[in-house]
Amino acid sequence: MSSYQDGGKSSCQETVVEKEETVKENRDFDDGKKRSWPELKGENVEIAKATILKERPDVYVVVLPEGAPWTMDYRSNRVRLAVNEKDQVVNVPVIG
């Protein structure tokens, strides 16, 4: 019986845990500010953008077409919205 089958973690699971711990260490999430808006997925892009800017005037919102490429860099003052052809947000907007 492998260690995975008897309750041990696979190397993939260990890597994920290590990365999650690194993210927690590198970002301050205890400032009380909202960082994600799952309730805006499916919402009209203009309503979503206005809601985010009302709740977090310190960020800027980038609107991109669904499927468009974007960089993987983290920005603590940016929220990206992926929008379909009906102007609906298709991702969960998050800081980054």
UniProtKB/TrEMBL annotation:
Annotated SUPFAM superfamilies: CI-2 family of serine protease inhibitors
Transcription regulation listed as a keyword: no
Keywords: Protease inhibitor, Serine protease inhibitor
GO BP annotations, alphabetical order: response to wounding
MF GO annotations: serine-type endopeptidase inhibitor activity
InterPro entries: Prot_inh_pot1, Prot_inh_pot1_sf
Superkingdom, natural source: Eukaryota
A Pfam cross-reference name: potato_inhibit
Record's compositionally biased regions (Basic and acidic residues): 16-37
Keyword hit for Lyase: no
Ranges annotated as biased composition (Polar residues): 1-13
Family: Belongs to the protease inhibitor I13 (potato type I serine protease inhibitor) family.
Protein name: Proteinase inhibitor I13, potato inhibitor I
Lineage: Eukaryota, Viridiplantae, Streptophyta, Embryophyta, Tracheophyta
